[in-house]
Write a structure and sequence with these properties.
Elements (H helix, E strand, L loop, with lengths): L1 H15 L7 H22 L3 H10 L9 H16 L3 E12 L3 E10 L3 E10 L4 E9 L3 H12 L1
Antiparallel strand pairs: 1-2, 2-3, 3-4
Length: 153
């Protein structure tokens, strides 16, 4: 009985320290970030891979779409979508906000043949929330390991 009670208290403390429902400031950042993330995935679902990447990145006028690194990122993103099979779904893996200034959102993007981690970093410059960085990879071992720790112990 003590173990059960102690476990419930720990779960309550852990839940109250999590990011969800943190405060209105981070909710504002979350809301504005999702305004960019949702259409991004909708474009992928429609097969508009280049539009998805370009629209996301061009929402920040400080990102030069004609820069060689940006062109390379978009090219690799299109290639990923063309070689991974049909896009299946996406789910949030992890979210971290730093006050109302920076939001990092990691998503699991599931394709027919493979899955990827898409990472979006947003910045609130006090006037608006803008994409700061977008990246993707298939090395999500750390997230998988972290997510299974509770089940393995």
């Amino acid at each position: 009985m003590r173990v059960l009670f102690g476990t419930l208290i720990l779960l309550f403390l852990f839940d109250s320290c999590s990011d969800k429902g943190k405060n209105d400031a981070s909710s504002f950042l979350d809301e504005r970030s999702l305004i960019a993330i949702k259409p991004f995935f909708e474009n992928i679902e429609s097969g508009k891979y280049e539009i998805a990447a370009r629209d996301l990145l061009k929402s920040n006028e400080n990102i030069d779409l004609n820069d060689s690194s940006t062109i390379n990122l978009i090219r690799k993103f299109i290639e990923l979508n063309q070689t991974s099979g049909r896009f299946v779904s996406y789910k949030i893996l992890r979210k971290k906000t730093f006050q109302n200034d920076i939001g990092v959102y990691c998503y699991l993007a599931k394709y027919e043949k493979k899955f990827y981690r898409f990472t979006f970093v947003f910045y609130n410059n006090e006037k608006e929330v803008k994409i700061f960085k977008f990246s993707f990879d298939d090395n999500i071992d750390a997230e998988l390991e972290e997510g299974t720790k509770l089940f393995l112990n």
